[in-house]
Design a protein that fits this description.
This protein is mostly helical. The chain is built from four helices and two strands; from the N terminus they run E-E-H-H-H-H. The chain is globular and about 40 Å long.
Length: 99
């Protein structure tokens, strides 16, 4: 029975270095996704606070949308999550892959 239970941390380090807990994450009713909130959700998943499925269900995200956030953070950090910069970073990344 115990091996089926997942051990989760009580808190993880957020994108700005602050501790994140389930209670300090953006509320499930969030509709306006600013860079900081996206990065907090990605940090929570990466740190094991939430699973990908739980994050997608909690915030009504598609798996593709969340995966896009995660890729953006991996490639460009928090600035990659800015909606106005997505195309710039996408083009830059594609150019880097050619060489």
């Amino acid at each position: 029975m115990i091996e089926n239970q997942k051990i989760r941390p009580a808190q993880v380090i957020g994108p700005l270095g602050e501790p994140l807990t389930i209670d300090s994450l953006p509320p499930p009713s969030t509709t306006r996704w600013v860079v900081r909130r996206k990065a907090e959700v990605v940090s929570a998943v990466n740190g094991g606070l939430l699973s990908v499925d739980e994050a997608c269900e909690r915030y009504s995200l598609s798996l593709e949308e969340f995966a896009g956030w995660q890729r953006a953070v991996d490639r460009s950090g928090m600035p990659g999550l800015r909606v106005t910069r997505i195309q710039h970073y996408k083009t830059l990344y594609e150019r880097q892959q050619k060489y």
